[in-house]
Amino acid sequence: MVHVIQKVKAAVSRKLTAVKDTAASLAFSSRHILSANAGEGYIDTAIKILLAVVLGALLLAGLYALFGETVLPTLVERIKEMFNYAG
What we know:
Elements: H1 2-35, H2 42-82
């Protein structure tokens, strides 16, 4: 009877040690996963896209203002002067 109790104690001790090791391993791997900052998230990508759209719109508005007020009137005037056969 004493041997049976000792065997049960040893088996329970082995199982308890295995459970502790598994819990420690799970805690370590979850801590590693949660503390890792590699990769790119959805928010980062959304901010990059929004920034690109805003900068593109500003660039397009600047070019439109430049061509609309400075370049095109001068170009139209030069073309009219080139084809002005009256004098």
